[in-house]
Structures are given as structure tokens and as C-alpha cells.
Amino acid sequence: MTTLKRAQGAAGARVLGLGAYRPRRRVTNADLAETMDTSDDWIQSRVGIAERRWAEPDETLIEMAVAAGGKALAASGLSPDAIDLVIVASASLRKPIPGMGPLVAHRLGVTRPGAFDLNAGCAGFCYALGLATDSISAGSARNALVIGVERLTDVTDLTDRGTAVIFADGAGAMVVGAADEPGIGPVVWGSDGDQHTAISIPEGLPHMTMAGQAVYRWATTKLTETLLQAMEKAGVGPADIDVFAPHQANLRIVESMAKKIGFPESTVIARDIIQAGNTSAASVPLALTALLESGEAKSGDTALVLGYGAGLTFAGQVLNLP
Ligand SMILES: CC(C)(COP(=O)(O)OP(=O)(O)OC[C@H]1O[C@@H](n2cnc3c(N)ncnc32)[C@H](O)[C@@H]1OP(=O)(O)O)[C@@H](O)C(=O)NCCC(=O)NCCS
């Protein structure tokens, strides 16, 4: 058997730029209370959401992905030619053929990259970031664009108070590139497929159903270990984490996770859910972008991120902010 040449990978990968797109239309809890039996008080106390963005018809998955991706590219300082891998994570694509990756890349002027979609529910962005990082370390890519984009309103029954108050739309993106020192830690990922139906679009239905309490229990009991492993693999501990940005599914889940890990008081906790709702695969880059824009997080900060959701899936890693 002929011995084949080994790819020359980079020593590591780091984040070079972030970008976000928030749909124009704000929907407050008071707006929802006009059409369904709910209240601002119930939503704020159980989920922590004050308002969310719902995309208009022209704010398609492609348009939002291109908008967020373009901003991340601009922030990275790279020209589109430098990107050789584009991964678009989404769980709300209603027509899967063709995938969005190649068109998003084309619209951004990225020529002939490896380009594809990835569906790992709300963990999609962190899965995609793990793949991009490993591709750079393995030598399959030099610079990658990773996008999380959702129009969850397309797959939500907007008259069902159990899900309509939670799910929302948006896009977030990150450019990652080869580096001499790793600026993104190893991904820790996994799945609990025995809970496959906990968040699903059942056969014959056009929208999602969710076993809210089961997902809540799972998220607040099973994922602390993943957070600890992600820190251990990156060689850091809770005291080193400047920013904690888990998936924005429920503010109570965010607070519970933060309490269990025991971060120092100085750690900034992402609470983008208050304004953005649950945007699934878009929530982690949206939350990081918001913290950088507001100045609560700064360049060089060490962030711990975690995605989790339908599947059930989970993925987390530590990264240095650009
Ligand atoms: C969905 C979730 C907010 C529901 O909160 P909860 O405290 O578990 O509430 P329950 O489902 O037990 O419902 C309690 C009551 O509130 C009612 N209720 C549900 N949604 C409501 C709403 N939007 N407004 C007012 N009342 C509501 C229920 O009908 C129920 O009424 P009942 O006691 O008369 O039957 C919570 O379970 C959750 O966040 N789970 C995790 C889901 C998640 O993170 N999913 C995304 C993962 S990616």
C-alpha cells in the first residue's frame, strides 16, 4: 500500500471576527398577550424574554446569513478569497435541497470553498465551530466562515403560547483562521438520542412541539459536565472565564448553569435572550456580538460557549474573543 502524504495543519485556530443580523421587527410580550393567553409577567418570570425579533418575508435565511457573514468577514479584515470553508448551521431550513452554504458563500464573494449546511438543532453553531477549528488544525482549511441562522417562526405555531413566546429569528457569524497558538479550545460534543422527540416537528405537523419540562431538567442537570470538560480540555478553570455565553434558551437555565459552575463575580454572563428570544443556532454568536458591541466583553477575553437543543445535542468550547 502506498503511503499517502499527510496534510500540513496549523498549530491552532482563533476567532478573527464576529457579525450579527437581527431582524427589523420587534415583538414584545405585550404584543403576544394581544393574540394569546399569556402575560409579560409569565414570560419574564419563566423564560426571561422581554422581546424577540421575528423576520419579515424578505429577511430570508439566505439574506440574514449573508448579512451576518458579511459583517464577520469585514470584522476579520480578511478578503473573501481567503476563506476556504463555509458552514451554515440551521434547524429551520424547510427545503433542504440545495443547501444554503454554497449560495451564501457565492453571495459573499467567496470562491469555490468547501460549503455545506449543518443541523444539530440549537447546538449547530458550536458543532460547526468545532468542525471548522478541527479542519484548520488538520490542514483541510486555512480560514473558515461559520454562520448560525434561524427563522424559527417558520417552524413554530405562532398561536401556541407554549412555543410562540420562546422561539425567534436571527443570524450570527464568526470567521476563524489559522494561528500559531490555539485561540479556540477543543470542542466537547455529544448527544442524547433517547430524547429524540423532546423537541421535534412530528410527522404530519408543520411546526415544532416541545416537552419543555423534560428539556429544562436535562439542560440544568446533564450539561454542567460538558462545560467542565470544555474548560479542562482547554486547560482553564472557572476563574479564567471572562465571558459565559451559553445557548440562550431560557434565562433560568443560563443562571442555573452559571451558579453550578461557580464563576467569579467578574465573569460576564450573556443574557441576550432578554432582547432576542431563543434563536437556536444563531444565539451564541448573537450573544457574543452583543457583549462586544456593548463593551461588556472586550478583545482578548476568554469565553466559554455552549450550544444545546433538538436531538438532543450539545457542544461547547472555550475561545478567545477577537
Ligand atoms: C417551556 C418552559 C418555559 C415552560 O415553563 P414551565 O415552568 O415548565 O411551565 P409548564 O409547561 O409546566 O406550564 C405551567 C403552566 O403555564 C401555562 N403556560 C405555558 N405557556 C404559557 C405562556 N406562554 N403564558 C402563560 N401560561 C403559559 C401552562 O399551560 C401551564 O398551565 P397549567 O398549570 O394550567 O396546565 C420551560 O419548561 C422551559 O423553558 N423549558 C426548556 C425549554 C427549552 O429550553 N427549549 C429550547 C431548548 S433549545
Describe the structure.
With 322 residues, the chain is of the alpha/beta class. It folds into two domains: 12-179, Peroxisomal Thiolase, Chain A, domain 1 (3-Layer(aba) Sandwich), CATH 3.40.47; 188-320, Peroxisomal Thiolase, Chain A, domain 1, CATH 3.40.47.10. Helices cover 32% and strands 24% of the residues. The chain contains eleven helices and 14 strands. The strands form four sheets. It has a five-stranded mixed β-sheet with strand order 1-7-6-4-5, with helices on both faces. β4 (85-89), α4 and β5 (114-118) form a beta-alpha-beta unit. α3 crosses α4 (101-107). The longest helix has 16 residues, at 61-76. It starts with 11 loop residues before the first strand and ends with a strand. The model has no long low-confidence stretch (mean pLDDT 97). Residues 38, 42-43, 46-47, 122, 161-162, 165, 210, 212-213, 215-216, 219, 249-250, 253, 278, 309 line the site of coenzyme A. Coenzyme A is lined by residues 38, 42-43, 46-47, 122, 161-162, 165, 210, 212-213, 215-216, 219, 249-250, 253, 278, 309.
What's the total count of β strands? 14
Order of helices and strands: EEHHEHEHEHEHEEEEHHEHEHHEE
Low-confidence stretches at least 5 residues in length (pLDDT < 50)?
A: none
Q: Indicate the overall shape.
A: globular
The number of helices is: 11
Number of domains: 2
CATH homologous superfamily heading of the largest domain: Thiolase/Chalcone synthase
**What share of the residues lie within helices?**
25-40%
> What is the fold-level CATH name, i.e. the topology of the largest domain?
Peroxisomal Thiolase, Chain A, domain 1
- Main pleated-sheet profile: 5 strands, mixed
- Give the class-level CATH name of the largest domain: Alpha Beta
Helix-strand category: alpha/beta
Bound molecules: coenzyme A
Share of residues in strands? 15-25%
How are strands sequenced across the largest beta sheet?
A: 1-7-6-4-5
